[in-house]
Amino acid sequence: CRHCGPYHHHQAPFISPLLHFTFTRMRIHNVLPALRLLVGAVFVVCSSQNVYAQYIGGDNDVEDWQLYDEEEEDSTEKPKHKEWKNLIYVRYSPSQYTFPSYAPHIDMQEVAAGWARSIQVVDSIPLFVEAGAELKYTFTPKEDEQAQAKYSLLTFRVPVNVTYKLYLSSTRNIALAPYAGIHFRAIAMGKEKVNGKGENIFEDNRENQTSCKWYRCQLGWQVGIRLQLERYFIAASYGRDFPDKKKCPQIHECGLSAGFCF
User: Fold this and answer.
1) Which contiguous run of DSSP H or E holds residue 31?
2) Distance between CA atoms of 75 and 228, rounded to whole angstroms?
């Protein structure tokens, strides 16, 4: 070249490879960080895909296990709610013995103990028939003010009720049970005590302070409601004899009872 001179002409073959090597090294240094970043990104993406695959696989296993568990529950017959078949109870009932067209009524106090057998009519309906037996003791808490008489009676009664249960919990261990039914009663023993002397009130041809004949047997009805908690219950009831002026006494009673089932 005529502008470069002889020195430049002789040094050009040596400078060109040196510049090419320098530029190449500079390109490699610029590329390496980008390459490292690219490799790191690929590694992170691969790792994430692996973890996600394991997570999805684990979820599938859980879903399969849950589905299998549900199938097992569906195929297994669930246990039925247990209904108690027997009831034992005690009852306290203030009562009133009336004598239509004869004498004033007599206020009595009664305590009773009883047992009942519960039979479910249909499995799909909580309707029950309850029949049992009851022993009741009746007494006057104080002497009658007019006749100065005191009474004591021992009565056997057979109640039969129809009961419907309203369950108040999903487990059916709490229930409200209204009931209604009839009963047959028989006074096994009755005494009237006047001036310290006790006499059989059912004795023939004997005058008593009520001026009427006492009948041992009578039919009556009762209604009530029972609150049941597990196997224990409390109840309130009202009952009376079927009206019959020919039979005395006519008994009216309000009762509170408590008991348990088995």
Assistant:
1) helix 5-75
2) 32
The type of residue at 60 is N
pTM of the model: 0.67
DSSP lists the bridge partners of residue 153 as: 138, 190
Distance CA 122, CA 129 (A): 11
Q: Residue 80: what residue type?
A: K
Rg (CA), the chain: 49
User: Tokens 């568990």 map to which residue?
Assistant: 69
Q: How confident is the model at residue 247 (pLDDT cuts 50, 70, 90)?
A: confident
DSSP assignment of 53-114? HHHHHHHHHHHHHHHHHHHHHHHSPPPPPPPP-EEEEEEEEEEEEEETTTEEEEEEEEEEEE
Q: What are phi and psi of 94, to 5 degrees?
A: -65, 135
Query: HSE (CB half, 13 Å, CA atoms) of 68?
Result: 6
CA dihedral 64, 68, 70, 74 (to 10 degrees): 150
